[in-house]
Amino acid sequence: MLVLSRKVGETIQIGSDIIIKVSSLSGGRVRIGIEAPRNVSIQRGELRQFIEPVAAPLQPTPACGDLNAQAS
C-alpha cells in the first residue's frame, strides 16, 4: 500500500487517466474528487459487499430486442 500526504488542491494520478484531488479537509474528514473514464467503476468501500460482481456480460433476450431471435 502506498500512503501519501496531500494538501487541499493537490492531486494524485493513477495511470494515465485517473486523477484524485483533495477538495477539502474539515473536522477530521477528507473530501476528494475523482476524475476517471466512464468505464471505470468507482464505489465506496463499505458498499462493495452489497454489489454483486459482474461475472459475464448480459446476453439479450428476444424481449429485449434480440433481432436474430425474432427473425427465426
UniProtKB/TrEMBL annotation:
One Pfam short name: CsrA
Keyword check for Cytoplasm: yes
Transmembrane segments: none
Signal sequence, renumbered to the chain: none
Localization per record: Cytoplasm
Record keywords: Bacterial flagellum biogenesis, Cytoplasm, Repressor, RNA-binding, Translation regulation
Family named by the database record: Belongs to the CsrA/RsmA family.
Assembly, per entry: Homodimer; the beta-strands of each monomer intercalate to form a hydrophobic core, while the alpha-helices form wings that extend away from the core.
PANTHER family: CARBON STORAGE REGULATOR
Known role: A translational regulator that binds mRNA to regulate translation initiation and/or mRNA stability. Usually binds in the 5'-UTR at or near the Shine-Dalgarno sequence preventing ribosome-binding, thus repressing translation. Its main target seems to be the major flagellin gene, while its function is anatagonized by FliW.
Stated name of the protein: Translational regulator CsrA
